[in-house]
Design a protein that fits this description.
Elements: H1 2-23, H2 30-34, E1 39-46, E2 52-59, E3 78-79, E4 83-91, E5 95-97, E6 100-102, E7 105-114, E8 117-123, E9 139-161, E10 166-179
Antiparallel strand pairs: 1-2, 2-4, 3-7, 4-7, 5-6, 7-8, 8-9, 9-10
Amino acid sequence: MKKLLTFAILAGCITFTSQLYAQGSPKDTPEQKLHRASLGSQVSQTIAGGANVTITYSSPSLKGRTMGKDIEPMNGKVWRAGANEATIFEVSKDVTVDGQKLPAGKYGLYAIAENNEWTIIINKTWDTWGAFSYKPADDVIRVKAKASKSCLFFERLVYTIDREGKVSLVWGGTQVDFHVR
């Protein structure tokens, strides 16, 4: 009986540790990052006016789950707008985001989904794991954005940026747009 209990505890510890390892950490090596379930991605575009806009993120997959129920973004809660590390939003020149001034630099991109109206947050903190160290006091910009039905279904989270500065977050059947000028 003792051996069975010891074996069960050991098996549970190994399973728990492997699940933690699979989630990754901010100190993962590049090779460890290659084996994450949510792969790293980046989109970059030079928009009208000459500013380069870059979004660096990890792209989670739905895998049969429902956004807001089984997987983030959860309604009313801050989300890192991706997986793993916080999503990075970088601009090479001073720009405006939906009319609000944003100096050139590197920022964390967060979002709060609230049914069909989302809050897009650009925050000073970009070099962090997830949204665990998110502080509203570090917000540089908050803008409201309408969520709409996308014309295609995307299993993985995708960001796009067009030349006019429209930034789109598209995942599942949802699309959220905001504008950088």
